[in-house]
Structure formats: C-alpha cells, structure tokens
Amino acid sequence: MRILQASNIYGVAFGIPSISTLPKSSSQRHPTIAIPAGEALAKSVPIARKFSEQHSLKMGDMEKEGSSVVLEKKDFAVPRRKATALIFSSFLLSNYELPKVAYAQSVEFREYIDTFDGYSFMYPRNWIQVRGAGADIFFRDPLVLDENLSVEISSPSSSKYKSVKDLGPPQEAGKGVLRQYLTEFMSTRLGVRRESSVLSTSSRVADDGKLYYEVEVNIKSYANNNELAVMPQDRVARLEWDRRYLSVLGVENNCLYELRIQTPEKVFVQEESDIRAIMDSFRVNKIAA
C-alpha cells in the first residue's frame, strides 16, 4: 500500500462468507513542519508553503460499473520520491543543518458500492481489481503482491443469518475464521508447517446501527529447505511467509458478509492506521426489493 495516514476518507466495505467502517466525518490532517531556528526557517517555510498549495484537496468524479459505484476522493497525497526531494532541497538551501520536516502523508481512497449484493467499502485508489479470484470482489496492491482485500457472501439458500450474533460471541467467531483460513491454506507439500493464532476479536456498532465483528489472526508458514533429505539435520525449516489476516463480519439480507484483508506482518506495522480505516469503512446494506 505504501501509505501512512488516512484523512477525510469515505466509508467503504465488503464481505466474505466465513466465520468492523470508516467514520463519515474524519478530521483532515495537514502537513506539519518543525524547523529549527536560524536561516533554515526563512528558507524552508516558503518551500513547504508552495508544496502545500500545489497539493490541495481535489474531488474526483463518480463512476458506475454495472451494479456498483466507485467514488473517488483525493486527500493530501504526497509521493515518497517528491517528499524526499523536498527534504533534500531544504538541506541544500539551509547550508547549516537539515531542517526537521514532518509530513503527514495520506493515501487516496475510492469507495466501492455494490448495490446489487448490498455492501460497500473503501480501498486505496492505486489498488487494482482482480477478476476470477473466487471472491465476490477482489483488490490487490500492485506493488506488494501479498497485500489484498476481498469480500465474500454466504448463500441465503444454505443458511439464514439474522445477526452476526448467530456466530456466537466474537471469540467463537474468531476461532471459526481461523479454521477457515487454515482449511484454505492446507498444503500437500512435504515439510510444510503452519503456525497460527487469533490475535484479537472485538465487536462494535457502526454508525448504520448494525453490529459488526472484527477478527485478527496471524499465520506463519514454514517449509524445509530439503524436504527429501534423509537426515533430520539436513531438513532445516525456514520461514516462507508471515502474514496478518483481518476480517470484518456483518449480517444483512439473511447473508453473512466478510471483508478480508491480507497483509505481510512487516507491512502491517507500517500501514496499520490505513488498514484499520479500510476495516472501519465496511458496511452491509439492505437490498431494495
């Protein structure tokens, strides 16, 4: 994702049939500049002011894709290379010391609204939709291939959900989510071992008055470097991947909706606030008869 902070973003959401929405009013954050006394102050401030004016807030147009609507909204988005160039130019101008400039970057989001299936969510604007992935909708980061989100919906013919409470308390729902992930990641390769744990479970009532469950799990995959070796010391297990899976569960239209987000653990540490903004944006909506 390569994003640092989300601000003034719209709510969006999606769901999966396994076992919580972005506030409509987020306070817009502006870049803050901390500059030491001296000549750096007189030289760096005009640069930052000009930079801020060039990146003012802009609103995009609404696009329709079949039964879905995509709403663009641009917040203050600063490409990393431009921010680096700005800091470097400030260094050249202040011949004495590097100004301490801090920019509160934010990502550009789009809102995906599925009026046919009844859900909505927010996703980073640079993510691409992947068709034929098996989920109702699937987006992925084009740069971090292990980072993606998807929505799945249970079949109303096989089960009738009245509330997310039908899954039991959040702790029980979390166990069900973990079982589902482990089932999907089963491998027939020799020497593969999975380590998994439920990191957290919670429930919340969103601004639409509906109850949502949130579940976070961690799964690590280990594989032997030489699974066919005879001697145990020649079969050394190595870490293949370490990922966090975050699910938001909601019920509407007699269906269970699940929004899934997958991200490497090291990426999650850097992008936690934006990932949680996506989770907060998830909404399930009544389908018009």
Plain-language structure description:
- With 289 residues, this protein is of the alpha+beta class.
- It has four helices and 14 strands.
- The strands form three sheets. Strands 7-8-9-13-12-11-10 form a seven-stranded antiparallel β-sheet. Strands 2-3-5-6-14 form a five-stranded antiparallel β-sheet. The chain has a two-stranded antiparallel ribbon with strand order 1-4.
- The longest helix has 16 residues, at 39-54.
- The model is unreliable at 2-45, 51-61, 73-78 and 88-104 (pLDDT under 50).
Task: Please name the defining characteristics of this protein.
4 helices; 289 residues; 14 strands; single chain; seven-stranded antiparallel β-sheet; alpha+beta; globular; five-stranded antiparallel β-sheet
Strand content: 25-35%
Distance between the termini: 37 Å
Helix content: 10-25%
Largest sheet: 7 strands, antiparallel
Radius of gyration from CA coordinates? 22 Å
**How many strands?**
14
Based on secondary structure, the structural category is alpha+beta
Low-confidence parts lasting 5 or more residues at pLDDT below 50? 2-45, 51-61, 73-78, 88-104
InterPro entries: Mog1/PsbP_a/b/a-sand (IPR016123), PsbP_C (IPR002683)
Subcellular location: Plastid, Chloroplast thylakoid membrane
Protein name: PsbP C-terminal domain-containing protein
Organism: Anisodus tanguticus
